[in-house]
Design a protein that fits this description.
The complex is a heterodimer. By secondary structure, chain A is mainly α. Helix content of chain A is 65%, strand content 0%. At the A-B interface, α1, α3, α4, α5 and α18 of A face α1, α2, α3, α4 and α5 of B.
Amino acid sequence: MSVEPLHPAPEELYAYRDGELPAERRAFVETHVMACRVCRERMDEMSKLEASLRAHPDTVGDAYYERMQAQVMAKVHAAAPPSRAPIREVPVERRRDDLEHEERRRGAPKLPWIAVGSAVSAMAAVLVVVVLLVRQGSMPQMAVLERSAPDAGGAVSDTSEGRVAEQLAPPPTESPSAPRDDARAKERQQAETLKTKQQPTDQVAVAPYAEEEKKDKAQANETGDQKLASRPESDVMAKRSAAGMSKDEARLEQAAPQASMAPESMTRQTFQAPPAAPAGNRYESALTRFGLPPLWGPGVSDDLVLKAEPVFRNLYRTGGATTPLDSARVRLYLAEAARLRAGAAPDSAAIDEIEHHYRRAIRLGGEDPATVSTAAQRLRDFLSEIGATP
Amino acid sequence: MTPARPDRTGLTDEELVRLVRGGETDAFAEVVRRVQRPAYRLAFRITRHAEDADDVVQESLVKAYQALDRFQLGRALSPWILTIVARTALSSLRQGKRRATISLDDPGPEGQGSLAERSADPAADPGWWEQRLDVERGFARLSEEHRVILALRVEADLPYALIAETLDVPVGTVMSRLARAREALMEQMAQTKKDER
């Protein structure tokens, strides 16, 4: 169909029909359509085609939907937290697409509060020791003491006055039970004086993370992960901010990029050493973490399978397995875990789940005979165990 | 004997969300009941595979439950969930890139007849269902990009802004891509008519 220049562009015509055309163009298109039979016919034809698509019959019946509802609710109950938080409103701008981020956020400990809490207590402890040391004139030992308080950002090797002042500075919030003797107040006052001379307050809070980031960047460079290491902080922070993360969460995530890509339970180790498994393949990371072989076999420990199940489940839910074969193997592990959980007398939901995972493993493992034959054999065994016809 | 579930069919989406957030997980069953049909249709349109669509819907509904605290009360629930379904389906499509072809003559799941048979309502005008099958065939021949955007608009009835979010493209791109997809569908239909002559 030829379109004369005076007709609105197709995108404008269809957007007008969809009620999505910006106001400034709506009047123009509307006036044109009222007068143009060609454009009206075009819109009518499209309406018929779309009505026909919408009238496409369901490929499944009511029984299917009833079963799906039961299966979803079984999964929902399994995934339900012990108690949901009371009703609360969530800001509109909590960003859209990050379900994965949301899962990480839920799975991870409340890092900023833990970090602040740990920092407060660790700094208080350091302060007490420092007071003692200052009194004994043994300040050179400070560097060692600082390193012993990692939660307070203690990976600080600088022993300059400024750094010492950071450690001597009062914690951001004060414990109600903190002793308030005169000597301590005096020490704090001295520290405060030093601190204001050497460092702006906000830098003090950031410094531990900055050190952490430097170390991680250096480490990433060593392993050739240039891209990860070189991403600018502002860029990362902006993205995290858009995703509704606090600054501290963003810093933590940036400071431990590998952990941030790891499955839910691995993000709990954000402050620990990064996982040894290669970044990028979450299935392999999970296997390495739990010491499991790539393909489930009869010799694999049941305990390990059950321990790894939440991680595999997370991979399955978030599409974390990067290839169909990995997905197939994740399904196989999930089927085995479900069998172990269900025991000798699985209920119908468990049977559905187990059978479903095996079938998906067979389908997804299409090009790998070992995976397909293992899944098929296990499915046959399972069906015969429950008395169903394979 | 398990106690009967309270009838929640009269509650609004917002009331259901409040119940679930307040700890009544069972109330989510009503949410599932309301959205599972459009969710499945959308997932099936995108993945073109019954089992994949099944997986996608189940996974998406669990995700929706887990993310329910983020749902903004006052907005429509169904498009929000369908957006999750669409993203999950796209992820499944990208991950698997498998066969994704379904013939109108393939038997349906659960022992049902083929789509062609199921479409052939004897009470309906034969010309009407014949055309419906032609449209389905035309749709199936579209590129993945065009099928996906048409599914989001036509099947899920998502506004442009949500389609843009789902596909991570500007709204302007949604407008132009959707128009191209529609034009492509019309071309397919024109071609089908030409072939029939």
